[in-house]
Amino acid sequence: MRLIDEKAIEKIALGAALLGTGGGGDPYIGKLMAIEAIRQYGPIQMLDPSEVPDDAFVVPTAMMGAPTVLIEKIANGNEFEVIIKHLEKYTGQKVFATLPIEAGGVNSMLPFAVAAKLGIPIVDCDGMGRAFPELQMVTFHLDGITTSPMVVTDEKGNSMIMETVSNNWSETLARTATITMGGSVMISIYSMFGHQLKKSAIYNTLTLAENIGAAITDKQDTDVLPIDRMINFVDGYKLFTGKIVDILRETRQGFNFGKAKIVGINADKGESCEVDFQNENLVVMKGDEVLATTPDLITIVDLETGVPITTEALKYGRRVVVVGLRCDAKWRTKKGIETVGPRYFKYDIDYVPIEERVKGAK
Amino acid sequence: MRLIDEKAIEKIALGAALLGTGGGGDPYIGKLMAIEAIRQYGPIQMLDPSEVPDDAFVVPTAMMGAPTVLIEKIANGNEFEVIIKHLEKYTGQKVFATLPIEAGGVNSMLPFAVAAKLGIPIVDCDGMGRAFPELQMVTFHLDGITTSPMVVTDEKGNSMIMETVSNNWSETLARTATITMGGSVMISIYSMFGHQLKKSAIYNTLTLAENIGAAITDKQDTDVLPIDRMINFVDGYKLFTGKIVDILRETRQGFNFGKAKIVGINADKGESCEVDFQNENLVVMKGDEVLATTPDLITIVDLETGVPITTEALKYGRRVVVVGLRCDAKWRTKKGIETVGPRYFKYDIDYVPIEERVKGAK
Hints:
The first copy, chain A, is α+β, with helices and mostly antiparallel strands. In chain A, 33% of the residues lie in helices and 28% in strands. Chain A has an 8-stranded antiparallel beta sheet with strand order 16-15-14-13-12-19-17-18. In chain A, strands 3, 4, 7, 8, 9 and 10 form a 6-stranded mixed beta sheet that branches. In chain A, helix 1 (6-19) packs antiparallel against helix 2 (28-41), helix 2 (28-41) packs parallel to helix 5 (106-118) and helix 9 packs antiparallel against helix 10 (226-234).
């Protein structure tokens, strides 16, 4: 167990933006909520998954919907008290701790605010090791853990407890409820016991995010660019360096679809590159060559500052590096690739691990 | 307490079609379900509201959505067992009895099937004394009883428990859930205690429906037309007699809107009449003269057989009588008229009780 303070939150938020692979919204608003909660209730206990008792009831908390809507439609601050109350009443279980469902974006931060406010610990793990757009895209799903009972609540005080026949039905029903409730809601989902968490979670992703944040902001060695310190720390790949020349964006069925076109500079001068996204970055191509695909992580980072850029913040003329990172081994299984591989997102591309693609690169 | 058998069900279904004021779907499919359940589980206990203990937990059961969809998408037969299980678990209360939320259409019959199958009594009352299209249009709502916790389930096995901040929010959220779940769902709503039921329900509407059915089908006095026996029994009004010459229908936002045009025959020869509906018949006009409006009951009945006709079954050339009936006094209060009066349905007409309109008629 260790205590998380404001400084740690700042670093985790920065690192979570890298793990967010362009999606999940800027962790900024989540960070503000977490910092505000720490100021009011004190530092947050963060547990290693190994410290969670096997029979403890643990509950991922998150927002669902468009993060851009959340900014306009601020939470009333009591949603998670309502959610936990409903869940405890319905299951007869006492909630021991919370955790993030994903390690990127707003949802990497919200559970800190929940933990501080409710006086429960947060567990240093998540269900993706990154961010993904749909509810069934978590390692818990791969291991047969159900979304149900899922609790959905809005800032007005409406709430629903859902028991569904599949995690995909939870996605469908909760998605339309989210739209009806105003575009963003707070949820708890995949509530489970400690022994399930220990088997299925991706461990220590919050500490990883913190260390990524520290690598980016480290002031000790100013001869090295932040991007290089970070790449070195995460053992990642600089897939392409260039200048953004075009952004296409389209909103369909509640998702942000789009494409960023980048022309090479420095070592990539003369080349060009495209990054495709559906909320998260999914595929990066250099001409006809696939450089990386989901579920490996693809994040666009500012060349000078090393700060990760969400898809909303991509702008013409910005000089960037497309960074690639190996995903967790749980995503490289057959069911993992079926659930979040390029073909699920309608790309006619087989998944090949990023390290093999890089090795074979021209 | 009395026992309800197949014969009683036949009569109740027929009478419920009159109280259904054209909407709520043909009770036919609900009747089949009730009869099937009686054949399998035996006759159903029907209690007078006065026989329900004050602290007994009673639960209206119903379908929500388009009755026409229900016919295509037959219930799996276990929806209400699932609903009652969820509700008992969530509230910690044992369900003592069920009742219909409305006295017309499919929903007048479904609770009989539920009662037979679950081995619980049905209470001889409802929350409308007729049928209405929206969830908050019940006498329970007028007395501040909440829809929550509302349970929604589909034939696939998905279910939701909803706790909302208002009965109108229940309507909104359940309506979109219904559409996502395939257009029709089974629900429990306005669960309450015996003392609330006794204060807020409209009493003995199932017995009323049965007696209306008996009046229509009575074979004793063949000199009198069924329509006249029925009008006489319910102390109602023959508002207009004629032949249907035009039907306009439009489906918007999950409701059936429309208008039937009727040209007079017999005493009404030379006149013409229009009946407007939104699922249920709402307003009947003779030329510029308003003959009756919601919440008073307006039902179109076959001239020869006295059988009530739902809006779906209105057809060119059919000879009909437009029948008017006084609504329950609970609907004639300020809140009652606000909730279901003509202005709620966007008509620029004040509510005037049908007996005053008839008295003042030209």
